[in-house]
Design goal:
Chain lengths: ~150, ~70
């Protein structure tokens, strides 16, 4: 009984670890995000209430999508409607996934927001947290470095 | 056995104090609302209040970070 209590207490205090550079994205998350193993993905987590996102998204929209690179936006607004209006307003040209139930953001658990991950072969190869000036240039540089 | 249990359970008891859930960066939706600004919805009102205050009290400063440098004020 005592042993069981100690084990239960120990496990209840262990929180899930955040995904970081070099970590593999869980297969179920990859499947839900529809990630192909042959491509490099730029996964951008954003929300309508995030001021930095408003600044960054028009620049991220400029990032070139091709056979090898794809930008995927993940909207984390509580209300899907807010996210949809935001996406419509900014006319985002890339695929957007609505994460109202926080499945994806909880899996990645970024330390800052907005959060941008580079995923290749199911692994996180780089990540950017927080606002970055000229994010489009940064992404272009990072993708070039990854090649 | 009882002693061992006390030794093992005491740190766990204190660990309970550290289990207050932090607000994650993506959960700051409410904090990002305009109404949550220190100055309120209309920062100009706060500025006006500050102007009235220093006019009446004949004093200024002590309510923020001063601009640096020239000493012209």
């Amino acid at each position: 009984m005592l042993k069981k209590t100690i084990y239960a207490l120990c496990f209840s205090t262990i929180s899930l670890m955040a995904l970081d550079k070099g970590d593999a994205v869980p297969q179920n998350i990859q499947d839900q995000l529809n990630l192909d193993s042959n491509k490099t993905y730029v996964i951008d987590f954003f929300a309508s209430w995030c001021k930095s996102c408003k600044k960054e998204l028009p620049l991220i929209s400029k990032v070139y999508n091709d056979k090898l690179v794809e930008v995927v936006g993940v909207n984390v607004d509580k209300k899907k409607k807010d996210g949809e209006e935001f996406v419509k307003k900014f006319e985002l040209p890339f695929r957007v996934i609505y994460d109202s139930d926080k499945t994806f953001i909880k899996a990645f658990d970024p330390v800052g927001f907005p959060a941008l991950y580079y995923v290749r072969d199911g692994k996180i190869v780089n990540a950017i947290f927080g606002a970055v000036d000229n994010i489009d240039e940064q992404i272009a540089k990072d993708l070039k470095d990854l090649k | 056995m009882r002693r061992l249990a006390i030794i093992l359970l005491t740190p766990l008891l204190f660990m309970g104090c550290s289990m207050i859930e932090e607000v994650k960066p993506w959960e700051k939706e409410t904090l990002a609302e305009e109404i949550m600004q220190y100055e309120g919805l209309h920062p100009e009102v706060k500025k006006f209040e500050a102007h009235v205050y220093f006019s009446k009290e004949a004093s200024r400063g002590g309510n923020g970070v001063a601009g640096g440098g020239c000493g012209c004020n």
